[in-house]
Amino acid sequence: MFIRLVAAILLVVSVTPVAADARSDAKTQVAFGIAVAQRGLWREAIYRWERAVQIDPTYAQALNNLAIAYEHEGDLEKARMAYEKALELEPNNALIKQNYELFKEINDRTTPKDAPDPDPDPDPDPTP
Amino acid sequence: MPRIQIRIRTRTRLLSSLAAILLIAGCTDYYEIPIETPIKPKLDVSPFQRVLVAGFLAGGTDDVDGNLETTRLLRSQLRTKSELRVIDTDVLPLMEDAAGESATEPGSVKDEPASEPKRDARAEPRGDGPQAATPDKSPTIKEAKDLEPFEHIFADVEYWKKIGEEYQNPLIVTGTVMFTPHARSGIVQREEEVYDSFGRRRVVPVRTYQERKGYILQPKFIFIDGRTGTVMHSENFREEVLYNASQSTPALSSYFELMDRLIPSFLSTLSSQRIKGTRILLQ
Lengths: 128, 283
What we know:
The structure holds 2 protein chains of 2 kinds. Chain A is built from 5 helices and no strands. In chain A, helix 1 packs parallel to helix 3, helix 2 runs antiparallel to helix 3 and helix 4 runs antiparallel to helix 5. Chain B is an alpha/beta fold. Chain B has one domain. In chain B, 35% of the residues lie in helices and 34% in strands. Chain B has 8 helices and 8 strands. Chain B is flat, with a radius of gyration of 29 Å. At the A-B interface, helix 1, helix 3 and helix 5 of A face strand 1, strand 4, strand 6, helix 8 and strand 8 of B.
């Protein structure tokens, strides 16, 4: 029992710095990605943010940035998947939500819509 | 002793709120960035160098010639916003052509060279410019279902193939346009200024009964391969606008207002577009 407890503590102690290191490395990649994206180097930014997500797959901000970069490159399917993953990780992040809403607006335009036959007068005439 | 406790509690609160602020600031490192999203066209138009906006089966109000106005508008939009060369020619009298086919029915549409008499009809001198169908010959089309007996023309491969041959195999744009007047009464919400007893201004939503009238625009754009005469793609749209009944808005101006809303979608079928916007990068 004691040995198990010690083993568990050792495991937690050894994993925590690794996770922290992963996030820290991923943050470096994300920061570099932002810097290059601001200079218009979107391909390089994609590479950096993809690296960040590889290092730390739970990094919602990196996924958000990656989605934006995919959007900018016209890869809307990949953008959608990245946004959805980011929102899965941080469902209450208002900024990711806002980006996703703007993306959806554009994405909807690209899918052909066949307008259904609408009700000619959907609002019932109310009595004044 | 209580004073020391209060001081410690205050310091703890101060530190915790400072930590919270730092945490929030740390979490919300963001950068607004402009982006341009390229939108691929829905149709592969690379085999075509030219586009022919042939004409439309149109109906609804008599105040706007849906066939002529839609043809003109789409041609001018395509001229400036697509890489295809726009063919300038008379608008096809589709309604007459379709009616001609109906007269030879049943079954003769595909067997007989149904387009022959139509071609003659198009060859006839027709006043000035693209004023196509003569109104006295056109049947009255008031509702979308009135167009149905004529819509078989879009499936007439031979008809479109002949037109394609005549204009060197362009992409052909055609379809139907219904532009109908519409009235709807109901409760609408508007904002009203009110002043309280102290003279302070407030804006409050007020729900009132209002009679409104306007128009509904229902176009269906059909894209036909001029080489084969077959339909490549078709898309339906519906837009409506309502004004206060006391407001007098010309039908043509409403038509353009509604078409303005549809044009980006129409163009995105044929040509790639770049949509500008801004997004938030996060750290």
